[in-house]
Amino acid sequence: MADHLTEGALVRLLASHTRQTGTNGGLTPRMIVASGLLMALVGAAFAVLLFSVADLRGAQRLAQQSEKLLMVANHLERRVVDLETGVRGFALTGQERFLQPWQEARAAFPEQASELERLAGGNAEQQARARRIERDGTSYIRDYSLPLVNAARRNPDTARTVAATEEGKRRVDAIRAEFDRVVATERDLAAARQRHSDAAADRAVVAAVVGLTGSVVLITVFAGYLTRAIVRPVRRAAAMAGRLAGGDLAARMPETGVGEIRVLERSFNAMASWLEEGRAELATSRARILAAADRARRRIERDLHDSTQQRLVAVMLQLRSVQAAVPPDMPEFREKVARVADALTGALDDLREVARGIHPAILSEGGLPPALKALARRSLVPVELEVDVPTRLPEPVEVAAYYVVSEALANTAKHARASLAHVQVRADEDGLHLSVRDDGVGGAAPGRGSGLVGLTDRIQALGGTIMIHSPAGQGTTLRADLPLTGP
Prior knowledge:
It is a single chain. By secondary structure, the protein is an alpha+beta fold. It has helices at 7-21, 27-93, 99-119, 124-154, 156-159, 162-245, 260-325, 331-358, 361-366, 368-378, 395-416, 452-461; strands at 383-388, 421-428, 431-438, 465-469, 477-482. A 5-stranded mixed β-sheet has the order 1-2-3-5-4, with helices on one face.
């Protein structure tokens, strides 16, 4: 069974158990079923092994008992022979020295006969033979050898008769025949026990091999199932979580797991979808805010240009007319009017500069290249400008690029202590790519009061990216990429 167990069979078995028990297909019942199968297989193998070991121990004990029985039977048979030879020798010679082995055998026979009967207690037939041997041996001693010894002492000629010696031989031969049957039967029993022991050993080996093989196969299948059902999905979830943490909100997991793993996959996908929708809504909201701010800038710039500047220009012209109309004999009044007109001219220039900073009119009228050229001319740091923008770009992209370059040049002038700045702007089908680098002291970073935080927000709101590389003492490089379509 274990040799033919496959992962598919295990999966089908787990699924069948899930349907039968009414569980919801979670991992816990599957793990319980798989663990139960492994425990059942290992337990069955060990049970067979333990039974086989018990049989082997029983067979070993019986073999030791059989060996002891044969040894006792051999010693007892020699005692019977000693009884017969001692009596015969004394009867034929009349010499007392022949009675010594007879006396020793006569003294030892009862105890050894009882030992033989005890050892044969496991087999009724052998026990019956042992009892006959004890009975016949006791009868031989009591009814034959003792009377014969006494008779030989009284009348040696009577004890030497053929009848007397033949009777003893007949009795001893009968007893020895019982010994032969005991030995033969015991050897047969020992052979049968040996065969049983061999069979038990074979069962133990087969149980061990089957248990080990089945355990290895089942553990391998179980490990494969765990790898496929848990490890791989978890590793895939970790990889997807890494992509999600890196900003790839489009990362999704296939919902192919089982139980809690599928719940995890669905939850991950739901979370990723929610984050993606939230980022899209945030980007849209930021774009709307930026668009509204740009419209407000344009409106303020237009109001300043069309209303306030025009009124100031009209007032200045009136002052110049008043200055021209002052009589020559009032030089002090003429000088005061001239100072007021000059001050009003300076205020008008300042207002034009403020209006240009709020939203340069040249950007709306001529596009990005002329607006960047105007920035380069006004920069306090010499600028090398390379612009490759053959057509007008979407207004949010032009505004964002303009303010990126404007803020970068302003930071260069204020903080970099640079002698030269290089601005490169290029538009292609992938988007607008711009870089601003200088040869200053470096050390610039967003969030340190450099004004780059607002630029980062503006670029990201349009779906673009911005990168600042500013090692200390090696200048600063700012790169930004803007898509030409909305986020």
